[in-house]
Design brief:
Helices cover 53% and strands 6% of the residues. The chain is mainly alpha-helical. The chain has two domains: 14-77, Winged helix-like DNA-binding domain superfamily/Winged helix DNA-binding domain (Arc Repressor Mutant, subunit A, Orthogonal Bundle), CATH 1.10.10.10; 85-121, no CATH class.
């Protein structure tokens, strides 16, 4: 069983979606350091993807530092060192592209949604009576 929830979307490589979902799950605390990660076979069966794609996912997660092999145990989650900016942006790029397409369809300019992003970044002030 996959240790986090995620849904496949069309138009984006499956392996990229799974890697990004795992990254988000680790950042949000849904995945915790030391937890077991499914084997290639289990991942392929659970998601109904090819073993080649499942192997690619595991390889990418290892390269990014999210997985470590533990003899006699299998693959376990590890908190990676913060990847290079380019790698972090690459994880965000598919979502950013969809966001840009939607913003264009709504006739919004970069400044318009930059304001929205900045508002979202700031903590909401507590409601005061």
């Amino acid at each position: 069983m996959l240790p986090f929830v995620f849904h496949l979307r069309e138009g984006e490589p499956v392996s990229d979606q799974i890697v990004r979902a795992a990254h988000h799950a680790l950042a949000s605390g849904d995945l915790k350091e030391g937890e077991l990660f499914p084997s290639t076979r289990a991942l392929a069966q659970h998601l109904k993807i090819s073993p080649t794609t499942a192997n690619k996912v595991i390889s990418q997660l290892r390269e990014l530092g999210f997985l470590a092999s533990r003899p006699g145990i299998g693959m376990v989650i590890q908190a990676p060192q913060l990847p290079e900016l380019a790698q972090r942006l690459a994880l965000l790029e598919p979502s950013a592209r969809r966001f840009m397409e939607e913003a264009r369809a709504l006739h919004l300019k970069v400044d318009d949604f930059e304001t929205l992003l900045r508002q979202m970044e700031s903590p909401t002030p507590p409601n005061t009576p």
